[in-house]
Amino acid sequence: MDEQRIIKVSKYLSRHLRHQPERIGLRPDRAGWVDVVDLLAACRRHRMALTEDELLEVVARNDKRRFALSPDGLRIRASQGHTITVDLELPSAPPPDVLYHGTVGAALPTIFRDGLRPMARHAVHLSPDVPTARRVGARRGRPVVLEVDAARMAADGHLFQVTDNGVWLTGHVPPRYLDVAGFVPEQTGPTGQG
Q1: Using CA atoms, how far apart are residues 169 and 127, in angstroms rounded to an integer?
Q2: Confidence band of 4 (pLDDT split at 50, 70, 90)
Q3: Count of Cβ atoms closer than 10 Å to residue 74 Cβ
Q4: Burial degree of 119 (CB within 10 A; 0-12, 13-18, 19+)
Q5: pLDDT number for residue 62
Q6: pLDDT score of 73
Q7: Can you give the residue ranges of every domain in the chain?
Q8: Which of 79, 90, 80, 64 has the alpha carbon at shortest distance from 121?
Q9: Are strands 75-78 and 124-126 parallel, antiparallel or unpaired?
Q10: What CATH number was assigned to the domain covering residues 3-78?
Q11: Which of 49, 110, 131, 194 pairs with 5 at a CA distance of 20 to 30 A?
Q12: For residue 151, is pLDDT > 90?
C-alpha cells in the first residue's frame, strides 16, 4: 500500500476503534477488542474495503503503533486514546523520573492553572521523550514541551500505566508537577515571564 492509503486507513480505524465503533456496527468488548473478521466486514459494508493483509500492514507500519493485535491475531484494538468507555487492563507501573507532554503556547495559561486533564479521553497521555512530545504538540501549531515530574507524582500517590506502544497514562497532572522543557512564546511561562 502507498503511504496515502495507509494514512487514510489508519485514520478510519482510529475513528472507529477509539471513538465511534457503533457508526459502522462494531461492539468492542470492555477492553476495546473487536474481532478482525467483524472489523473487515464492517469496513466493507461502509465503503472502506480492506483486506486482512492490508490491515496487518497498517498495524505493522504505523510509526506510533496506534493499534494492537491480540496474541492470536484474531482481535484488534486501539492502543490508547479512546473516548468510548474501555478498560485497557493495563497494570500500574512505576514511571521514569521525567515524562513529557506536547502542547501549544495558547494552552499554557489553562494548563498552569488547572494542570493536564484528560479532556474527552480517559487519561492524560505523556511521552517518554522530548522528540515524541514535540511531534504531538506540533499537530496543533508551534509546539511547547512540558516536563512532568513523574517521580514526585508517583511518590505522592499518583498512578501511572504504560501502553504497549510506550505512551504513559495518568488521570491528571496537577500544575505543581509541570515545568517547561521546550520553546515558550513570550509571557506564557508558568510565572508569566517571557
Answers
A1: 9
A2: very high
A3: 11
A4: exposed
A5: 81
A6: 93
A7: 3-78, 98-180
A8: 80
A9: unpaired
A10: 1.10.10.970
A11: 131
A12: yes
Q: Is the pLDDT of residue 120 over 90?
A: no
pLDDT single digits (tens) 46-98? 999 999 999 999 999 887 788 999 999 999 999 888 889 888 888 899 999 99
**Interval 25-60: pLDDT, tens:** 999 999 999 999 999 999 999 999 999 999 999 999
Name beta bridge partners: 104.
Answer: 143
- Determine how many CB atoms are found less than 10 A away from the CB of residue 147: 17
* Strand-pair partners of 168: 126, 162
CA distance 162 to 177: 19
Give every CB contact of residue 72 below 8 A, 6+ residues apart in sequence: none
DSSP 8-state class, residue 73: S
CATH architecture of structural domain 98-180: Alpha-Beta Barrel (3.20)
Say if residue 162's pLDDT is above 70.
Answer: yes
Distance of alpha carbon 29 from alpha carbon 75, whole angstroms: 10
Torsion of CA 46, 50, 51, 52, to 10 degrees: -90
- Nine-digit cell string for 176: 505543581
95 DSSP 8-state letter: P
